[in-house]
Amino acid sequence: MASNFTDKATTRRAFLKGSVAAGGAVLGAGAAHAAGDPLITETQPWAMELGDGVDATPYGMPIRFETDVVRRNVEWLTADTISSINFTPIHALDGTITPQGCAFERHHSGAIELAKEDYRLMINGLVEEEMVFTYQDLERFPREQHVYFCECAANTGMEWAGAQLNGAQFTHGMIHNMEYTGVPLRTLLKEAGIKTESKWVFVEGADASSNGRSIPMEKALDDVLVAFKANGEALRKEHGYPVRLVVPGWEGNMWVKWLRRIEVTDQAVESREETSKYTDTLEDGTSRKWTWVMDAKSVVTSPSPQSPITHGKGPLVITGLAWSGRGSITRVDVTLDGGKNWQQARLAAPGQPMALTRFYLDVEWDGEEMLLQSRAHDDTGYVQPTKEELREVRGLNSIYHNNCIQTWWVKPNGEAENVEIS
Ligand SMILES: Nc1nc2c(c(=O)[nH]1)N[C@H]1C(S)=C(S)[C@@H](COP(=O)(O)O)O[C@H]1N2
Ligand SMILES: [Mo]
What pLDDT shows up at residue 269? Predict the structure, then answer.
């Protein structure tokens, strides 16, 4: 066992030296540190004792050093934590898939516990035959698998009037991105047989709030999924176990959790109190309603206020996320000087429709202050607007659908702050 560790250490050292010798060194004198470093020269405690057995953790949690990578809520935002929201720690994640354990939650009457045995999904209204499916019934239909983001329409909503919350988690963390497995809603609607006059579906959850929403039939028959797995495993309770609706590209409030009923109708049903809340108030007092699609948006996740630069000047990885509810991200630009000069970032993988895209820009940081911004482009040709441009159209009274360009002021000491520039 001990010799095994020695081998690994040797290989690692050889690799570090090798990369320098090959002229591919990013960090210059990196290998020179090794000589006086006890972490390299001394045998460490973890190499002198045995680790946990395979029966220690039947279901694993992150290692204790990562306990700050968690969902957080903002206390003053809502009156209680039941009808409330928390935020994904996007400043500390990489890649694009959001682990369920730290994916933001939004509920209107708390996360309920509903067993598969007690699960029923009813389809009624303008159908040939009203139907009730059990969980087991749903498992017998052909399945599909897709990665989609889910963004609450209120994401970035606190930033309309001015820079407010200090961290990407709080300004942009009402979003998650998961790989869903489920049955197309279309399949279930066909099973029940929709009547010719049907134009909408009214979807409802089993929780006390029921979160009823109307979705146009065109969307319902297109790509909406009745999902029961996320990232390979069962949905977590807080994300709607055992079954939730996935409405790709559209605002989170339509993604009904603990899905219990689908009513086929010929007109949109006004839900209880909530529909009106997801309406944008414009400067002239009129409202913007039925704005379901989430426009293209992006944010630099690191460096950012909760993810400062701690290594001084030199090579710096700038990274972030971009997404569009209208299609795929084709390009992301990053500026270090508040929009005077833009550079095209590298996409970690080609943009996928209605899913998060990870971008990187590798720079040599001179240690001077930066005004960091990112700007997303999608395949409809749409370009993410500045805060000024968005305000010209939507005014200052809006809460929802704020997809403007975000600015982080990175100071010479590496700390970052949420600011607004004009
Ligand atoms: N049944 C039910 N579905 C619901 C809600 C709810 O309160 N009850 N909240 C909605 C809102 S406003 C959002 S943004 C998303 C959030 O999904 P999440 O909690 O999995 O992040 O769920 C939606 N579906
Ligand atoms: Mo939401």
Answer: 87
Q: How far is the CA of 256 from the centre of ligand 1 (A)?
A: 6
Ligand 1 atom at shortest distance from the alpha carbon of 152:
14
Mutation pick for ligand 1 pocket among 257, 273, 274 (CB with most ligand atoms within 8 Å) = 257
- Read off the tokens for 313: 């000047």
71, part of any domain: no
Q: For residue 292, tell me if it sits in a domain.
A: no
* Residue 236 half-sphere exposure toward CB, CA atoms < 13 A: 13
Report how many domains make up the chain. 3
The pLDDT of residue 289: 67
Range of the domain at 404: 297-419
What number is the average pLDDT over the span 267-286? Answer: 62
Q: Are 383 and 300 in contact (CB under 8 A)?
A: no
At 393-418, the pLDDT tens digits run 998 888 899 999 999 999 999 999 99
Residues with CB under 6 A from ligand 1: 103-108, 150, 152, 176, 205, 207, 209, 211, 238-239, 252-253, 255-258
User: Which ligand is located closest to the Cα atom of residue 204?
Assistant: 1
Predicted local confidence at residue 2, as pLDDT: 35
pLDDT digits (tens, 9 = 90+) for 105-150: 999 999 999 999 999 999 999 999 999 999 999 999 999 999 999 9
